[in-house]
Amino acid sequence: MTASELPRSTDQKPRNNRALANLRGYATLMVVSFHSLIAYNYSQPASAPPFDAPPYGWLVNPIIDSARWIGFDLFCAFQYSYLMHLMFFLSGLFVWPSLVGKRPRAFLYGRLVRLGVPWVLGTYLLMPVAYYPVYLTTAADPSWSAFWSHLVALPFWPTGPLWFLGVLWAFNLIATLVYWLAPQAGQFLAQLAAGSRDRPVRYFVGVLALSALAYVPLAQFFKPWDWLDFGPFAFQPSFILPYAVFFFAGAGVGALGLQNGLVAPDGKLARQWKLWLVATPVAFAAWIGPTAMIVKGQGASVPGLAIAADLGLALTAATSTFALVALFSRFANAPSSTLGRLSQNAYGIYLVHYVPVIWLQYLLLGADLLPFIKAAIVLCGAVGLSWAAANVWLLGIRFGRKPRQLAKAPP
Fold first, then answer.
1. What are phi and psi of 134, to 5 degrees?
2. Total domains, the chain
3. Is 7's pLDDT higher than 70?
4. Helix (H) or strand (E) holding 166
5. What is the pLDDT of residue 409?
6. Mean per-residue pLDDT over the chain, rounded
7. Which residues in 70-84 are b (16+ Cβ under 10 Å) and which e?
């Protein structure tokens, strides 16, 4: 395969675009679900940590509610084990065709407008609104001015889930630089993905091996919940390289061509969906078992337990990602009224959902309700409000484009 044989534009409409769009909608819904349910995890701390004292536990558990259910812990642990890997993989699928079709300068400008601007504006405008209720749970002075003084005194700026946009922008920048310096890199990535359509297990082993090599050494120095912050840029140091592996794995599949690679709806991965479905809980158990033992304090007494947990996390991330691609390629390759509309608004929902999630959790703190009911209210309310906000945002974009379209119309 040569560079000229790579797809020229993401305007192509391969048959499994609907499956990928539906999978993107599912992933967005799982992100909102994870953030909605984490307040009701059984493993939450006993009380809310102080807002301005390290280790700033509210970054992981923004709202601490006494209504809890251990089933939510398992759900959130499962989503945590693979969800961002999946999102980086999906984000990488169309990168190389876009670079080939638009050229680096136009591509980078488009990524700046779509990712960079919302990332910075959302971080500095939306996140203070989202974290205000977190401050209120332990505040002596509940005024906005007092909150603002505490916020700006922090040694970092909390980005919430918008960290994903910052890291994704950085990966897109790296991909652009690679294409500019070595245009044939797309051919190399495509060659790595070659055969994934008919031999997905071999490609899985490659992705798993690379992600494990990237994750396990870093995990010896950084815990999974550790963060590094530089202004609006934040990331988990133990996960940054595995995320890059999945992003560029997606880029390789996209460079090969969606119909020729892993995500082909008639490929072997989709046909083997039963195998991947069975493998998913087995892989999850390989991580959650050792992790539970470590949390209970048994890590020191069992040699190699931490390494086993790290390898288990790499295994479950790759297995779950491949399983979901298989399931959606096999069964969700047709228009879906719910997932389709959710996918159309997925980006807007992701941008704003943290605000209604945390505010609804905060407003329900004093309510004498079962954790299931609270979780359902937060999840449904957050999805509905975020969806409405995303629709308003899309209408604004379309309205802003209309005068230019009219100007181009013939008299």
1. -65, -40
2. 1
3. no
4. helix 163-181
5. 39
6. 89
7. eebbebbbbbbbbbb
In sequence order, which residues have a C-beta less than 8 Å from that of residue 72 and are 6 or more positions away?
37, 38, 40, 41, 42, 371, 375
Beta carbons within 8 Å of 16's beta carbon, 6+ residues apart? 258, 259, 263, 264, 265, 329, 333
Q: How many CB atoms lie within 10 A of CB 333?
A: 18
Q: What pLDDT, in 10s, does the model give residues 136-155?
A: 999 999 999 999 999 999 99
Token duo for residue 266: 């008639």
Residue 185 has pLDDT above 70, yes or no: yes
Span 373-401, mean pLDDT?
A: 83
Q: Does pTM top 0.85 for this prediction? A: yes
Alpha carbon distance 233, 235 (integer Å): 7
Rounded to 10 degrees, the C-alpha dihedral 379/381/385/388 comes to 90
Give the single-character DSSP code of 161.
G
SS (H, E, C) 243-273: HHHHHHHHHHHHHHCHHHCCCCCCCHHHHCH
* Whole-angstrom distance, CA of residue 376 vs CA of residue 382: 10
Residue range of the domain that includes 277: 3-408
Nearest one of 31, 8, 38, 12 to 358, comparing CA atoms: 38
| Two structure tokens written together for 286 | 């390989």
